[in-house]
C-alpha cells in the first residue's frame, strides 16, 4: 500500500470521530471561550473542520507563505450544517489527493515561509502528519473540554467517554 493511501485510511478513521464531535458543537453562543486568550468556541470548531486544508497545500505546492493569509479574518461557521459541510468538503479533497499521490511526491521537501523568510522545511509527508493530523487531534481535545465546560455531552474518541457509559 502506498504511503498516501495509508495516510488516507488513517485520515478517514480520524475524520469520522471528528465529525461526531463537531455534530455536538452548540451554536447558541459561538463567542464563548474559557479564557480571554483562548479561541472562541465557533472559531475553534471551524478551525478543526478546516485543518485538512494543509494536505492539499502540502501535496499541490512545495511551500506556503503565511503572508498570503495576512489580514484575512478567520471564518466562523454560522451553524452545524455549515460546519459539517466544511469538514466534509475538506476531508473529501484531502482523501482524493492522498489516494492518488506518489510516495516520491510525499518525500519531497516542503517549506513554510513568513514574508519570504524560511520558518522550516521538512518532507511533505511530515507536514501532513504535523499540520493536519496531529494538529487536528490537539484541537479536538481542546474542543472536548469546551463542550464539557458548556455541559454538552462529550463523545468518546478511542472508547466511551464519561457521558457514554
Structure in words:
With 165 residues, the protein is mostly helical. It has one domain (3-164): Four Helix Bundle (Hemerythrin (Met), subunit A) (Up-down Bundle), CATH 1.20.120.450. Helix content is 53%, strand content 10%. A three-stranded mixed β-sheet has the order 1-2-3. A hairpin with a 2-residue loop joins strand 2 and strand 3 (117-123). Helix 1 runs antiparallel to helix 4 (80-100), helix 2 (41-50) packs antiparallel against helix 6 (124-149) and helix 3 (54-60) packs antiparallel against helix 6.
In short:
The chain has 165 residues and is mostly helical.
Key features of this structure:
globular; 165 residues; 6 helices; mainly alpha; Four Helix Bundle (Hemerythrin (Met), subunit A)
Provide the residue-averaged pLDDT.
Answer: 95
Q: Which strand order do you get reading across the main beta sheet?
A: 1-2-3
CATH architecture label name: Up-down Bundle
Measured by DSSP, the beta-strand proportion falls in 5-15%
Helix content: 40-55%
Task: Examine the coordinates and then state which fold CATH places here, giving the name of the CATH topology.
Answer: Four Helix Bundle (Hemerythrin (Met), subunit A)
Individual helix count: 6
CATH class: Mainly Alpha
Number of domains: 1
Net shape:
globular
Give the SSE map.
Blueprint: H1 3-22, H2 41-50, H3 54-60, E1 63-65, H4 80-100, H5 103-106, E2 109-114, E3 117-123, H6 124-149
Parallel strand pairs: 1-2
Antiparallel strand pairs: 2-3
Amino acid at each position: 500500500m502506498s504511503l498516501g493511501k495509508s495516510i488516507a485510511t488513517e485520515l478517514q478513521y480520524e475524520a469520522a470521530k471528528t465529525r461526531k464531535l463537531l455534530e455536538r458543537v452548540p451554536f447558541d453562543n459561538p463567542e464563548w471561550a474559557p479564557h480571554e486568550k483562548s479561541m472562541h468556541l465557533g472559531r475553534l470548531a471551524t478551525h478543526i473542520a478546516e485543518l485538512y486544508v494543509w494536505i492539499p497545500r502540502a501535496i499541490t505546492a512545495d511551500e506556503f507563505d503565511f503572508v498570503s493569509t495576512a489580514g484575512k479574518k478567520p471564518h466562523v461557521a454560522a451553524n452545524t450544517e455549515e460546519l459539517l459541510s466544511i469538514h466534509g468538503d475538506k476531508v473529501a479533497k484531502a482523501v482524493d489527493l492522498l489516494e492518488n499521490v506518489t510516495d516520491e511526491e510525499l518525500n519531497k521537501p516542503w517549506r513554510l515561509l513568513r514574508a519570504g523568510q524560511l520558518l522550516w522545511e521538512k518532507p511533505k509527508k511530515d507536514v501532513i502528519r504535523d499540520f493536519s493530523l496531529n494538529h487536528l487531534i490537539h484541537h479536538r481535545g481542546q474542543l472536548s473540554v469546551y463542550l464539557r465546560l458548556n455541559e454538552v455531552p462529550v463523545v468518546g474518541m478511542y472508547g466511551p467517554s464519561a457521558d457514554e457509559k
